[in-house]
């Protein structure tokens, strides 16, 4: 299974969900697969789950999805106990775990290629619905089912390293442009004003 | 900090529109935590790291909240990555409510915090984060409102450093 296969399946299910991506090839792949205004392409490692958690708490009636990588989650393990206690029902975290620091271009192994089990860590932190997915059929069943559940889900997808994202054009959207598109989309769909958006 | 001062401080945050607070507690301002927790108009979220507290607050801001992070000034160093990336680079307003330990006005200063205190303001300046220092309550409410307005106008973190009377 490669990450792009999973993202294609996810993209086909998108309606009004809010999707926050971290920095890795999945950010490029997701931006290519989905042009939805509810995508927030956060381009920093270790920040997507936190931002997604804040969104999920601020908008408890909206489904929020974080697209993460093993390296990024390992950089922000403090999120696990917080999620394990908050358990926001509207948040789904997908971790595409290729067991290497692929973005470094030398693909040295991450801790998950050795003895570290992210599902077990999530469960130990209090995230009840944590699961590891190892093939596309299982992703179609258990991975996509998380979108329908009203329960915090932490889905670790064991994927082969793929360099497909290097053949895909990078998103041409500036960070600020993406942010304003995102919050304007929220203003429109939530029928509320986002306080920091200026009125000139 | 006196209980009455804690109440006044929390009210000043409310009056400035703050309705969402992430935190890691510290010693100087911790009396504000139960007051925020018990306030039906404010949401309080415990974080495991100041870096996480900053990212959660950023997400809440994007979702329509007027978010703040309460932390010790040691948390500035821990969260500098989030402050620069999500805060400054993405441009998300976040009010930082900081117990300013180790500075000259800290009434409980000791060698344990002096180095942290000495480097706090230079690090904020280095990151280009605007700040106000509060050593007493002069125009407290007005200055807090100014800070929230400043964070929103500048689209970035804005730090409030509490020492002096707030550290007694």
What key phrases describe this protein's structure?
heterodimer, A: 200 residues, alpha/beta, 6-stranded parallel sheet, globular, B: 168 residues, 6 strands
Instruction: Give, in spatial order, the strands making up the sheet with the most strands of chain B.
Output: 2-1-3-4-6-5
Number of helical elements of chain B: 7
Low-confidence stretches of chain A: none
What is the N-to-C order of secondary-structure elements of chain B (H for helix, E for strand)?
Answer: HEHEHEHHEHEHE
- Secondary-structure element order of chain A, as H and E? HEHEHEHHEHEHEH
Average pLDDT of chain A = 94
* Number of separate strands of chain A: 6
| Beta-strand content estimate of chain A | 5-15%
Question: What's the helical proportion of residues of chain A?
Answer: 25-40%
Question: Largest protein interface?
Answer: A-B, 38 and 38 residues
Structural class of chain B: alpha/beta
Structure description:
The complex is a heterodimer of chains A (200) and B (168). With 200 residues, chain A is of the alpha/beta class. In chain A, 40% of the residues lie in helices and 14% in strands. Chain A has a six-stranded parallel sheet with strand order 2-1-3-4-6-5, with helices on both faces. In chain A, helix 1 (3-11) runs parallel beside helix 2 (25-33) and helix 1 (3-11) packs parallel to helix 7 (136-148). Chain A is globular. With 168 residues, chain B is α/β, with parallel strands linked by helices. Chain B has seven helices and six strands. A six-stranded parallel sheet of chain B has the order 2-1-3-4-6-5, with helices on both faces. In chain B, strand 1, helix 2 and strand 2 (43-46) form a beta-alpha-beta unit. In chain B, helix 1 (3-15) packs parallel to helix 7 and helix 3 (50-62) packs parallel to helix 5 (80-89). Chain B starts with a helix and ends in a 6-residue tail after the last strand. Chains A and B meet through helix 3, helix 5 and helix 8 of A and strand 2, helix 3, helix 5 and helix 7 of B.
